[in-house]
Write a structure and sequence with these properties.
3% of the residues lie in helices and 39% in strands. The mean pLDDT is 91. The protein is built from 3 helices and 38 strands. The chain has an 8-stranded mixed beta sheet, with no helix packed on it. Strands 6-32-33-34-35 form a 5-stranded mixed beta sheet, with no helix packed on it. Strands 24, 25, 26, 27 and 28 form a 5-stranded antiparallel beta sheet that branches. The protein is mostly beta strands and 497 residues long. The chain folds into 2 domains: 2-79, no CATH class; 109-492, Methylamine Dehydrogenase, Chain H (7 Propeller), CATH 2.130.10. Residues 110-132 are annotated as: Disordered.
Length: 497
């Protein structure tokens, strides 16, 4: 005989003979396969559902939500919180919604106060070490998201978007799990352009994001109990560029009857608009950048700018001028205009974006960075993007700084953030960033925090493809991932409890 227990969000079944509970259904999870919830998974499942765990009894390994005492022996249980905490999520470039409008959205910029904690560490030249380590995902070429997805606790996802493999980190078991697609779920593979997904402001239980796929836009849901995921179609058309948002509009580039069109819609009303995009490439776009009321997609052949309610405008680059998309991304001048770095065969220059007659500003060397977080060689550029570098230490002339993440803070007069410093490197910036393709490695690099105090967080030996380094903020820590590393390195952002 079995007993049925119903909670506000779930339905459980109690076996009379064993006294153990099995989950039959839970809000937002769809079909539940409780056999997949082996005992090693139960601590994680309990925290996700807000269920109860035993403290002193051995009658059952898990109890329904709200149980304060074991119904068999009466011993007290550990009740876990069932409401999501208001903790900001991490979605990588493009997923930061709390930035002010005067900061370009879609670049590696975060409003999280990372420097307040990291700058308490011993300053350079003292070398630091990671506080924690986490196994890299089995499919290591991936993008990360850390959020609640409507559950009580934050969880980390790693999507290997080139293969369509979704991976879930179980912190209780310290293991990565590959989530299997439910029947009818769309493939999550997307390789047409740089990747960007759209987080949900108020997610329902299990709701992750709107994600681009080769077949269209999909709404992604996860079921960590059954280790599975499902999708709902938002747009059924092959995508050629990742989606972006501007003033409550979703927009992306897709193929309709073999021609590229810009598709936009409002998430709340579904008001759909389509615009023709003649002569627009069918792939190879950057992730969209939102600034000054417009979305920008950048390509080796030109820029596409779109303002909600108006037709998009594709502008080829000036003859002979080629953008350096790997150098970081657009930056701003003091008058608020947006600029991107490129090369005309004779030298580098910044080109104004979003203008029918763009201005060009020549510079005397490459600058790496984005959103006013720029470096020329090993020195910061503190004024206009084309200004000379600020030299504090001549010994940094033979280093190359690659910015990874800018931390936006209104209380700081100069930008701060995470960088990768390549030591004893005097070659061209392009050669360093393309080291893997040339079969070379960077002998030594350091991971550093640049701010009120410069802090060396760790040392990296024999690094190839520096652009593959990804910062991730999850569980009160700053993590750094590279596909070639077996472990992700982590630094606590608050004191260990």
């Amino acid at each position: 005989m079995t007993y049925r227990w119903e909670t506000p969000a779930s339905v459980w079944q109690e076996d009379e003979r064993s006294g153990e509970f099995a989950l039959l259904a839970s809000e937002g999870l769809g079909q539940v396969d409780w056999q997949a919830g082996a005992r090693g998974r139960l601590p994680d499942v309990a925290r996700l559902l807000g269920a109860s765990l035993p403290t002193a009894c051995g009658c059952a390994p898990i109890y329904p939500e709200g149980f304060a005492f074991c119904p068999n022996c009466g011993k007290p249980l550990r009740r876990l919180p069932g409401t999501p905490a208001r903790q900001p999520g991490w979605w990588g470039p493009g997923g930061e919604s709390l930035l002010p409008r005067h900061v370009p959205h879609g670049l590696p910029v975060t409003s999280l106060p990372l420097g307040d904690s990291l700058e308490e560490r011993p300053a350079a030249p003292h070398p630091g070490r990671p506080d924690l380590a986490m196994p890299a995902p089995p499919n290591a070429l991936c993008v990360f998201a850390a959020a609640h997805y409507g559950f009580p606790e934050q969880r980390l996802l790693a999507l290997a978007h080139t293969r369509g493999v979704l991976q879930y980190w179980d912190p209780a078991a310290a293991l990565w799990h590959v989530l299997a697609p439910d029947e009818g779920a769309a493939s999550l593979a997307f390789t047409a352009s740089c990747y960007a997904w759209l987080p949900v402001a108020e997610p329902r239980r299990g709701e992750v994001a709107i994600v681009p796929t080769s077949a269209g836009l999909q709404r992604l849901w996860i079921n960590p109990v059954s280790e599975s995921y499902r999708t709902e179609t938002v747009l059924d058309a092959p995508l050629v560029a990742a989606p972006g948002t501007m003033r409550r509009h979703i927009a992306c580039l897709a193929l309709f009857e073999g021609r590229v069109r810009l598709w936009s819609a409002r998430p709340d009303t579904g008001a759909v608009e389509e615009f023709a995009c003649p002569d627009v490439p069918e792939g190879g776009w950057s992730r969209p950048i939102g600034y000054d009321g417009r979305l920008f997609w950048l390509h080796e052949g030109g820029e596409l700018a779109w303002r909600p309610g108006a037709a998009p405008l594709f502008t080829p680059w000036p003859p002979g001028w080629q953008p350096r998309l790997d150098f970081g991304g657009p930056t701003q001048s003091r008058d608020g205009r947006l600029w991107h770095i490129g090369h005309d065969g004779q030298g580098y220059s910044f080109l104004e974006l979003g203008s029918e007659a763009p201005q060009r500003m020549p510079i005397d060397g490459a600058r790496l960075g984005f959103a006013n977080f720029l470096f020329r060689r090993g020195h910061p550029v503190l004024d206009e993007p084309w200004s000379g570098e600020h030299v504090e230490d001549q010994n940094q002339d033979d280093t190359l700084v690659l910015p990874l993440l800018r931390a936006f803070n209104n209380n700081r007069s100069q930008p701060s953030g995470l960088v990768l410093r390549l030591h004893k490197y005097t070659g061209r910036a392009e050669e360093a960033l393309e080291a893997r393709g040339q079969g070379r490695v960077i002998a030594r690099g350091t991971v550093e925090w640049i701010g009120r105090r410069n802090v060396i967080l760790d040392e990296v030996i024999r690094l190839s493809h520096p652009l593959a380094c990804q910062p991730v903020v999850y569980d009160g820590c700053l993590w750094l991932h590279h596909p070639d590393w077996n472990l992700m390195r982590g630094w606590r952002l608050e004191e260990a409890q």
